[in-house]
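Review form for a predicted model. The reviewer records the input and the model, then writes brief findings.
Reviewer: anonymous (R2)
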Amino acid sequence: MQRIFLLLIGLLFSLLLRAQLTDNNGEWVIKDSSSVQIADLPWTQSQIKNVLKDSSYTHFMKSLTEDVLFEMVKGKSFLSVSPEILLNGSYEPELGENFFAYGGGGRLQYLLNDKFSLKTRIYGFQQDALAGDSIRGVNNLMPGAYKSNYVSGIMSYFDFRMRMAYEPSKYFHFEAGIDNHFVGDGYHSILMGNNVSPYPFAMISTSFWKIDYNVQYHFLKDVAYPDLSKVYNKYMTTHQLNFRATPKLHFYILEAVVWKQEDSVVNRGYDMSYLNPIIFFRPVEFQLGNPSPDNVLIGFGFRYQPLNWFRFYGQGLLDEFYLKEIQAQNGWWANKFAFQIGFESKFSVSDHFFKLQAEYNMARPYTYSHIGSMQNYGHRLYSLAHPLGANFGEALFCAGWNYKNISLDAKIAAIMVGTDESDINYGQNIYRSYIDRESEYGHSWLQGNLQKDISADIRAGYVINKALDLNLSVGLRSYPSYSSSAIDAQRFNEFYLRISTFTAPRMKDLYRTTGLYE
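Model under review:
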């Protein structure tokens, strides 16, 4: 706590000092309403005296509530530096215990002549660990963070995100960094979600006419399930084509292939066959043998926005698809697909802003899984798509209201999950091999140990500093914690009070699902 106190004191002093510095050369201008300018170092003694003399409570409060730590522009170039802060306290009545989390870090954004940009975000924090976190923490398998560690009931997180981009023209965009990705318009995605730990990637994008196209190269890691003691390299290439049919109607197609670094013959590394940015993956996959050692998935989606304040959206995914088997309606195990449908509305009445969102997500058994965990659609023992994995259904509703700096938000989800029973693989755990199934036919959606739950997160907030994303929030969260070995999910209720510029991974989940993959 002493370190946090010193961090906050240093931050406040920096804000006060930064807001008062003035100079007449006008070369670097701080982007805020006061148009204050900053002098080239070193400062003279007279300038320092003037800073202290001109300091005022009003100016100090404005710096504290409206400005970032450091921000300046020079022509078309821009630099911004901001702190990251997390102070969280919660109480769980079932356990009769208090839980705390605290930490901090920094955020930097840099733009050079509208061509090159750099965005980084780095922070670390500690929190009291719950049962079951030790295995993932020790082996750095906690989702949502770059590094994790578990020592004596305390979970330590370190997260690092970076994106470097170069845009030589309006037609091409190059990007590389360490981050995760999200595809779609929903709260969740059945194609690619951002709940997993960040990973290195590279991307090439082009835009022309009504088409946007990008290819991404993902450098993943995973475990050879059920052994969780060591992680290995695995890789993924994705192609995404967006077609802007009309200003109100957009379609997109996503193609992904996942493969492991080593197979029984050779150390493949990043397979050169999948570096080509314009190929289709299926022909390449067929050349590798039957059955293929790689996992290819095809996804598609749409967005229809008939009004400025209202839109429909949806997604579909095909992991395997045989029309003959679907028409037979005999429950063939490899009829693996998922879909999403939803709507979102954002509108204002006077100074009041409202948001409404509802969506439905589902996935059939064995979707996203493969021969082994090194070819499944996962990263560090977690799903790359929806956090529930497969063999689930989810109805989700979100509502929000904002007035000036005050906000109210509510998220409610009704969940159905068919988990394994008596060590029988019913297709929910995407880390189990689909070869480890009971039969070829007779499989149905939500088969196995069906668990039905309601999850809710209701929060009131106040924006302390919009430029920093610094918020004060108080709320109630009630959520299930799933385990593949339990008959029913364990429920947690949590009252929390938080001052933060970011939300830690475990604090924003609607449910704990890590136990589903263990």
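Findings: The chain has seven helices and 21 strands.
Further findings: Residues 1-54 have pLDDT under 50 and may be disordered.
Recommendation: see findings above.
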